[in-house]
Amino acid sequence: MPEIDTCTAGDRLMALVRVRRAAQITLPREIRQAAHLEEGDYLEAQVTEAGILLRPVSIGNRQPTPEQEAEILAVVNEERRAYAAERRR
To answer: Of the ranges 4-8, 12-16, 84-88, which one carries the lowest mean pLDDT score?
Structure first.
């Protein structure tokens, strides 16, 4: 496998990577080390106006954002109200 050159742009580490068979990419060692990534870690992929953003996530300990928590609680409260109304009938 050919070496992939990395470079810095300001305070950011950058690398040119190639999409391979089955849409696989290899993140260079320097990038993985800088992001504290290990084999088996998960990345969240998001398409932005600037391109593709890869962000490390922890699947086991993933906490909802305050907005997600509010949405979850709203659904739970609505279900509680519907259940209570059904029981009163």
So the answer is: 4-8
State the sign of the Cα–Cα–Cα–Cα dihedral 23, 29, 30, 36.
positive
Q: Mean of the pLDDT values across residues 9-19?
A: 82
48 part of a folded domain: yes
Which domain does 43 fall in, by range? 6-57
Q: Do 67 and 33 sit in the same domain of this protein? A: no
Q: What is the pTM of this model?
A: 0.53
Same domain, 45 and 14: yes
pLDDT digits over 66-83, tens only? 888 999 999 999 999 999
Paired residues of 51 in beta bridges: 48
Rg, C-alpha atoms of the chain: 21
Q: Cα separation of 12 and 31, whole Å?
A: 10
Domain count, the chain: 2
